[in-house]
Amino acid sequence: MTDKEIRDMQRRIDEGIRVAQERLWHRAQFNHQTLVVAQDGKIVEFVPDADGIAFSVPQGDPLLQQKTR
Q1: Do residues 51 and 57 lie in contact, with contact meaning Cβ atoms separated by under 8 Å?
Q2: Do 61 and 44 meet the contact criterion of CB atoms below 8 Å apart?
Q3: What is the pLDDT of residue 44?
Q4: Tens of pLDDT along 1-17?
């Protein structure tokens, strides 16, 4: 593969990841769910709101909270 082909393939992969993240975000927003991600070695829960802005939920480990519900 040439460098141009590699760059083009990487661009398409990155675009696919961005589209998948956007769909996941909208699906969580529509279903009134939160997104749980690992960020800087910590588990963080994000709540998508109507404006497309996220805010994190600071109440400890969201996976542990879900088990206790």
Answers
A1: no
A2: no
A3: 84
A4: 899 999 999 999 999 99
Pairwise CA distance, residues 63 & 1, whole Å: 43
Distance CA 19, CA 14 (A): 9
- The one-letter amino acid at 26: H
In the numeric block, the tokens 């082909």 are attached to: 5
Q: Domain tally for the chain?
A: 1
Q: Which residues of the chain have pLDDT under 50?
A: 69
3-state secondary structure 11-64: HHHHHHHHHHHHHHHHHHHHCCCCEEEEECCEEEEEEECCCCCEEEECCCCHHH
